[in-house]
Design a protein that fits this description.
The chain is of the alpha/beta class. The protein is built from 7 helices and 8 strands; from the N terminus they run βαβαβαβαββαβαβα. The structure holds D-xylitol-5-phosphate (DX5) and zinc ion.
Length: 220
C-alpha cells in the first residue's frame, strides 16, 4: 500500500485544522509535520505546542520529521504531544541507534532520515531496527524545491537493502519536490510513503490534490 503524507509546511498556518481535514477528506492517511530549529537547517518552522493542538484533528499517522540538532533532547515531549512516528536525521545525532531505541521505548514508530549528500550505506547497521527510512529528495529546510533526480537511485538502494535484511515491511518515505508528475517513478523506485507539501496545499484545492495522488497510487 502506498501512503500520502501531506506536509503542513505548505499549508495555511492560520487554518491548519481546515487544511488537515481537506487533505484527509482527499484520502491522506499520514500528516507530515516538519519541525526545524534554525541550526540543523536554515529555517525555523513549528514545534511542540502546534503538534499538540493539531493532534485531535489527525485521524491517521502523526508523522513528525525532526530537522533539529540532537533530537534525543525532545523525543519524549514530541511523543507526549501526539507523534505516532518520529523521524530523526542520521546527521543530527552522534547516537542514531540510541535515538531509535528511545523512540521505541516511548511507544512510537521510529524513522531515520538521510540528506541528499548522505549515502544509503549509513543505514546498513540500523535497517533492521527502524520502522521507516526517509530519503530526502531536496536539501531540508524549505518547501517548494525541485526533486533531486539521484534520489531515485537512493530509493532503489534502500529497497535493495531492506530486501537483503528481510525487511520487506519497511516504510520507505520520500520528501521534497514530489508532484503528480514524478510520483509514479518515485513509487517504482521503491518509495511507499510520499510526502508532498506544495503539491497538496495549493490554496483550497487540497482535497482534490490529495485525491489525485490517491487515484494515481491505485494505478501504480
Ligand atoms: C523540507 C521538508 C519537506 C517539505 C516538502 O525540509 O522536510 O517536508 O515541506 O515540501 P515540498 O513537497 O513542497 O517539496
Ligand atoms: Zn519533511
Amino acid at each position: 500500500m502506498i501512503h500520502l503524507s501531506p506536509s503542513l509546511l505548505a499549508a495555511d498556518f492560520a487554518n491548519l485544522q481546515r487544511d488537515i481535514e481537506l487533505a484527509q477528506e482527499g484520502g491522506a492517511d499520514f500528516i507530515h509535520v516538519d519541525v526545524m530549529d534554525g541550526a540543523f537547517v536554515p529555517n525555523i518552522s513549528i514545534g511542540l505546542p502546534v503538534v499538540k493542538s493539531i493532534k485531535p484533528h489527525i485521524k491517521g499517522v502523526v508523522d513528525v520529521h525532526l530537522m533539529i540538532e540532537s533530537p534525543e533532547r525532545y523525543l519524549e515531549e514530541f511523543r507526549k504531544a501526539g507523534a505516532d512516528l518520529i523521524t530523526v536525521h542520521v546527521e543530527a545525532t552522534h547516537h542514531i541507534h540510541r535515538a531509535v531505541q528511545q523512540i521505541h521505548d516511548l511507544g512510537a514508530k521510529a524513522g531515520v532520515a538521510i540528506n541528499p549528500g548522505t549515502p544509503v550505506s549509513m543505514l546498513e547497521p540500523i535497517i533492521g531496527e527502524v520502522d521507516m527510512v526517509l530519503v530526502m529528495s531536496v536539501n531540508p529546510g524549505f518547501g517548494g524545491q525541485k526533486f533531486i533526480p539521484y534520489s531515485l537511485e537512493k530509493l532503489k538502494q534502500v529497497k535493495a537493502l531492506a530486501k537483503a535484511a528481510g525487511r520487506e515491511d519497511l516504510l520507505i518515505q520520500v520528501d521534497g519536490g514530489v508532484t503528480l508528475n514524478n510520483a509514479r517513478e518515485i513509487i517504482e523506485a521503491g518509495a511507499n510513503v510520499l510526502v508532498a507539501g506544495s503539491a497538496v496545499f495549493d490554496g483550497k484545492a487540497a482535497k482534490e490534490n490529495a485525491q489525485a495522488f490517491i487515484e494515481l497510487f491505485k494505478e501504480v
